[in-house]
Known about the structure:
By secondary structure, this protein is an alpha+beta fold. Helix content is 20%, strand content 34%. The chain has an 8-stranded mixed β-sheet, with helices on both faces.
Amino acid sequence: MNHGGIGRRAALAGLVVALVTACGGSDPGADPYLWLEELDSPRVQSWVAAENAKTLDVLEKDPGYAANLTTAVELGKAPDRLPLPRFHGGAVGNFWQDGDHQRGIWRETTVAGYEAPQPEWKTVLDLDALAAAEGRNWVWEGMNCAPGAGARCLVELSDGGADAVTVREFDRSTGQFVAGGFVLDEGKQYTSWVDENTLLVSREWNPGDTTVSGYPYVVKRWERGQPLADATEILRGDPADGLGTAPFLLDGGRGERVTMVVRRPSFFESQISLVRDGQAVRIDLPPKVDVQGLVGDRVLVSLRQDWTGADGQAFAAGSLISFDRDELTAAPDRPRATLVYAPGPTQTLQQVMTTRAHLITTSLDDVRGRATVYTPLPGGGWSAAPVALPENATVDAVDADSRGDTAYLTVSSPVTPVTLWRLDTAAGRADPIKAAPARFDASRFVVEQLKATSPDGTRVPYFIVHAAGMKYDGKNPTIMYGYGGFGSSETPGYSGLLGRLWLERGGVYVIANIRGGGEYGPAWHEAALKTQRQRAFDDFRAVADDLIGRDVTTPRHLGIQGGSNGGLLMGVQFTQAPELWNAVDIQIPLLDMVRYEQIAAGASWTGEYGTVADPAERAFLQSISPYAQLRSGVSYPKPFIWTTTKDDRVGPQHARKFAARLSELGAPYFFYEATQGGHGSGANIDERARTSALEYTYFARQLM
Length: 704
């Protein structure tokens, strides 16, 4: 499940933080369930426990639940799962969870060892042992290693899966935390190496040193051995910023380094600064850009808007461009760019990776995956070499060796297990080296891309996975998934759990590529921003109507599913077209759009949804807010609404209040709140398996 724009720490460019407006929100006296916004008070705990008990007493006692749970745990803990690689200092690492390692281990091997049929892993950090020794519910949130050999790394640990993390310096060569090393207490914070003995840190240095949403905006330089209180300020954002301010390091792998800081006035706007001679110097770039990496002396930037460089050259939104590092450092106020990639009408840039001397992009062409290797040419240009990969597949970047020539990609489809490809960027050769085993008999199923027509005439693509001999009689149990926000593209991939618990039992699965996403570039996203968001909702219903018109299914057998921003989509479909669905799986959702700016990190998304501070936007938010639009006397389908207490991004408050309102109306519903897991379905395999088993049990009850 891709939660797209509401993703955690999306490489600085997707830094998710919030701006709470003083005039935002509705009259507290008009909201009888405002008390459910208390995060973890005794009365909220009591309410959640009672609601969970009601739901679990039905779903966990369903005849199909035990088998669903067994399958979910079996697949989640399968020892032959494909371990995806991460390069660190010449080694290949992997974070792994299984039955013996519930919280997980960080393990490493050599490149050759990893590519062997049975890698010999060395455990470097055992999170289960650490949590037991310290009595903490540690959840792995990643590791950021120093440039060069990369032996010293900053490990981020979350208590229960929240976005707030503790940061500790770790030595990969000894497998120990560094005595007297860099340590930062828990908080929403961002760190970057400058060199082996220097960090840039963005955090709440003093009480109140955050945006009004609680995210950091002050970046300081911290030297090894220096008291944290003596760190030197580099750049200060503004408490009113919609996001925060964070540092990052571009490491070209051959000693080339560029230290930068990004300030985010809003979710889709960036101010990029070079750190030069201990000072942050602003680069004259347009606001809608993302810094993507460094290849040799070329700094890579992607554009989400049209832009004309200092030399008058024009670049279209969706392009990837490069800058000469030395020129940019010397004259950041007059940046001259070179085109690397420009999208065609049905194309969009997805991901960027860099090796020592090459650049790899993944992209979509009519929502089908592509990969290309780019090589810098003398004089500033680039050559492009498409990578020969299977057609009609999802292609994802995994990682690249910044000190060598190797990169890894995955290729999959709903009927093809994930295959890992090694890409030799110097030789221009791609080879499959590992594949996940098949988890179900995919030979029985086909994948089609179809298109529906939205009310304004826009053609909306969707993928449908079904049995080859499916009868077009309107009786096929169908799950339709959607997201449609933050420019995030939804592509069809392989899921053994979907195959085993849904497709093999006669189900159909659909992914709707609605506007608001990024499937056709920035324009596809911007078409559904703020008060235009009804287009995304209309697109989704157009796909449902198309499925019904083709006699694939009928409302009696049609269910829908989406999380985070997709949870908002589900809530809107639930209230605007309750007659179209018989199951609505509302995952970790936004639902109270009148107060969303005041809940968790919600107000950082005003660039996506609008703000109640603007009268026109407030009126629109009120009109589509699922919580505000629930009405008595309406025959609603029975939804499954679930969330987690530890979600400090969207927040569990939305789901709670929505369920409470349904209860008041006497409408049927299932509600479940997991106590751990952050903005997701669980922090470990068992927690994720339980949530999945509940979901598939619910869908079977409602649709089959």
